[in-house]
Amino acid sequence: MNRPARLAVAAVAAGLLGSVLTGAPAHAALDVRAAQWFLGPYKIAQAQQVSKGAGVTVAVIDSPIYATHADLSGQVQKGGTTASGGPADGWGPDDPGVVHGTGVASIIAAKGGSNEHLLGIAPGAKVLPVANSTVTGNSNAQTTADAITWATDHGAKVINISLGHVGEAHDYEIEAVRYALSHDVVVIAGIGNTTAGIQEPLSPASIPGVVAVAGVDQTGSLWSGSTRGAAAVIAAPATKIPVAVPPSKSPSTYGTADGTSASTAIVSGVAALIRAKYPQLSAANVINRLIRTAKDAGTPGRDGDYGFGVIQPLEALTADVPQVSANPLGGEAPSAPASAGAGPTAAAPAPAPASGAGVPTALVIGGAVGAGLLAVLVVVVLLIVRASRRRRPAGPPGYPPPGYPPSGYQPPGHPSSAGYPPPYPPPGQPPANPPGGTDRAG
């Protein structure tokens, strides 16, 4: 049974803005670009020579967005919505309550320009605002699920979810994610921040198929505030990330962010670059590029700190990566077995004719003779197989050797490692939700 739908959902980065860059008047010159320390080490300029995300829509499920910010002007679509009683189009007023969504959107798609303006990871992409909270912060897990479905139905190719709740995913969240995956959408969510008291991966980041993002610091090591857990898929910069904010938050209209909200937005931006560069690739193969090109860190293979490793934007765009036929993170809904006569493509079986009724006699007799010959042939083949098995020499004593294949063995190039894929109930059995209670802020 579901827990009550009205459950608190908190931004992954509680207090997204660690500090404002400056308290200077809005007209004062400010070298914001120099503060974007990750642009160089993560080769963003080189990556944007390959792709800028043009033509890709990234849904930002978050607070409303202050879309009239100079760096977001023209980057935020007017066709957004609200899932929880906020602004009808997802555009927010000049209010501190829209800081989180505005910051996330700017990391993804700020349009750049001079050094006085932010450069997003995918400045060619467009943001679809899906307000999952009002300016005052009211939101819940059900509205997150509704927002995922709405974004999927309204053209999003990437969905950024920098929020979540503690505890097991609700069945309606799982179904919303499955719906998005089945419609070729990449779903990316923050794993959580220990600085907000979150000690286990948040939902929906914990749902199989979702790209769960952890955070690293300026040295490339796991950020001390990043939540850890087996759900981790990939890591990205999470500290001192410059973001756009409304004037009511800072006269300069800029601030800095610490948290996996920021790292999630960076990964969403890279996913947009990939989708623009390879429009023919499925969402599963976009995810595959992200994880196969990640720089392994921590314990070799996938681990609960970095997932498959730290994101490498340029490599994700240019490396030779084999294609996959399914999401390497799982999470796809099982195919329902076809039932006779169900659906317009199901062909009804031809009725069997009565013996001799309107059928040439030669065909009836021929069918009977053919069945007899087939039975004889089957017996002969079985005898030959049995005789060959008796003549086959036995393998040497003790073969295969003890301990083979090695524990945890995976074929070369397989992205999996110990603890992957994460445990997930069989189809039709969603995880049991914990007893009632309010989800904690994250």
Please explain how this structure is put together.
By secondary structure, the protein is of the alpha/beta class. Helix content is 25%, strand content 11%. It has helices spanning 32-35, 44-50, 99-109, 141-153, 171-182, 260-277, 283-292, 313-318, 361-391, and strands at residues 10-11, 17-20, 57-62, 81-82, 126-131, 158-161, 163-164, 186-190, 211-216, 234-237, 241-244, 254-257. Helix 3 (99-109) packs parallel to helix 6 (260-277) and helix 6 (260-277) crosses helix 7. Residues 1-7, 335-381 and 387-442 have low confidence and may be disordered.
Defining key terms:
seven-stranded parallel sheet, Peptidase_S8/S53_dom_sf, serine protease, three-stranded antiparallel sheet, signal, globular, hydrolase, disordered N terminus, 9 helices, alpha/beta, 11% strand, 442 residues
Q: Cα distance, first to last residue?
A: 24 Å
Calculate the mean pLDDT score and round it: 78
Q: Helical segment tally?
A: 9
- Would you report the number of β strands? 12
**Are there runs of 5+ residues with pLDDT below 50, and where?**
1-7, 335-381, 387-442
Query: Over all CA atoms, what is the radius of gyration?
Result: 27 Å
Helical percentage: 25-40%
For the largest beta sheet, what order do the strands appear in spatially? 4-5-3-6-8-9-10
* Percent in strands: 5-15%
What is the string of helix and strand elements? EEHHEEHEHEEHEEEEEHHHH
Biggest pleated-sheet summary:
7 strands, parallel
Shape: globular
Query: What structural category characterises the helix and strand content?
Result: alpha/beta
